[in-house]
Give the backbone structure.
Amino acid sequence: MLELALKGSKRYYGWMTALLAVIGVGFGCYLWQLSFGLGITGMSRDVSWGFYIAQFTFLVGVAASAVMLVLPYYLHNYKAFGKITILGEFLAVASVTMCLLFIIVDLGQPMRALNVILYPTPNSILFWDMIVLNGYLFLNIVIGWQVLEAERNSVAPPAWVKPLIYLSIPWAVSIHTVTAFLYCGLPGRGFWLTAILAPRFLASAFAAGPSFLILLCLIIRKLTKFDPGKEQIQTLAKIVTYGIILNVFFLLCEVFVVFYSKIPEHMDHMKYLYLGLHGHGVLVPWMWTSVGLMLTSIILLVNPITRKNESVLAVACLCVFFGTWIDKGLGMISGGFVPSPLHHVNEYVPTLPEIIITLGVYATGFLVLTALFKMAISVKEELSA
Amino acid sequence: MENSRRTFLKIAGISALGLSAKPVFNAFAVSEEHGGKKEAKVIQKKGALTAKRWAMVIDTTKFKSAKDLEPIIEACHKIHNIPVFENKRHEIKWIWEEEFKHAFPDLENEHINDRIKSLPFLVLCNQCQDAPCVRACPTKATFKQEDGIVAMDFHRCIGCRFCMAACPYGSRSFNFRDPRPFIKETNKKFPTRMKGVVEKCNFCSELLAEGKQPACVEASGGALVFGDLDDPESEVRKLLKSNYTIRRKTALGTGPAIYYIV
């Protein structure tokens, strides 16, 4: 099937070349980082995780959201999703690929990465994250490939795929839960030390992932002969609506606990993010933008008139995606490190090479995504022809 | 032909997966006879200082100003090849000074007496009894020695910095760049580090092995006292018995081994 990803229109080749160019520049910067060290980033002794780990966290969510297609289709027999489940699975593959790359670029000694397997340490959550992420990647590649190949040959997928599909449902939940456990099990980091972190991660994931998928569906309909379907998009939109409302609800739960209890160790991080602390607050405008975007999207999504209008829906999905991206991809990680455990306020701002490397990883993800989607859509076009 | 190649690739793939999973399964198989290997034993050098659990008491009443702390910090940073960077983001420190409100943020008190308010406090790795960094490390590059010291293997560390996020005392530093050109005078008896690994105070394990006290204790002129917390006759225990002491962030349950007489 891979040959389907190699043949394409001029536009397809142009897009892939552009992505390769971005990857090339990103890789160049990565070589610089490899030779100099992580000192070329904005990270510091106090803010020891930055943009890379934040993107990783956000994308684990996008990956996990594939379950929002798999679950209705396979457990509730919601037939309409049969058409686009493959898109969710392939989006998961591309997202997990980016997650793993973000971990690699964040390592100080990437050539020692295999030490995690050579000296397995079950008491470390990172060990489990390695297992669940790689497992999820494997599951989605195998399932997606088998189902698509069967569809191409107009036969039923092999029987052994079914148990894997069922397994992939709790597994999707596990990747984001374990990722939240990386943070919420750490003493002395009041911002993350909350049992609601994993549910909150999942809620924002089930908002961000499907909203991105809706945008992809709209693009696919425009650029190809395959129509993901009106009903499918509307059902996804309802999932996004529940996801984003839950996410904002969980955020408000945090805000209440933190500001009513007034325990400084928990409150000061929130203060830093939304109000600024001791005169520092680079993230304040971003965080309020995020709140604004999420609230706007709720208004647009809850109202059936606006939700059913696909152009407005696209705007709402952009709001959801960027609102949750700021929340998780910007605020969640550095917010946990500022103020430091010794209550110093040292802010973090990513540097240019750090951003270019990040874009390189995103471009790699989009390359994988485009190739996989090209395959899936070519099969669908073949069948309808 | 087609079929047999496919079968071969399948078997090869599954075998490769199995081989890479072996160390993972080994980790769960704790039984010794299964592994066929005996646990490595640490052999102590003759004359080495040993203890069940090393601890330190810092008598802050013996310090007047930051000047009194300088030689202590200098002694540690010199023998451990700590680089000096201009960029504060890349800073590496094993032992340093903090104001009381930063060293003990949970004991904040705006009406605290003048002496404590202006007195710099020495902070270093607490060598926690239940260390969050040891729990977090995915490769056992940070591990607990039998004598209670939280040690590091700089050669195994992958630089994921999970331990830095886990430490509630900000005691860990990361080599954001090659430190070697920034070491004033290299001490050949202690390894220098490379870029991309984490480091921290090791309670001078290398000196204890030679029967010497930690460098900071030596340089403190009696203000820092080092000893075995499990030995009721040790100097540390005597000091703890006769003085009121505090430790940093005890509410977190990490069990710090550094005690402060205030």
Notes: Chain B has one domain: 54-261. DSSP finds ten helices and ten strands in chain B. The mean pLDDT of chain B is 90. The first helix of chain B runs from residue 2 to 28.
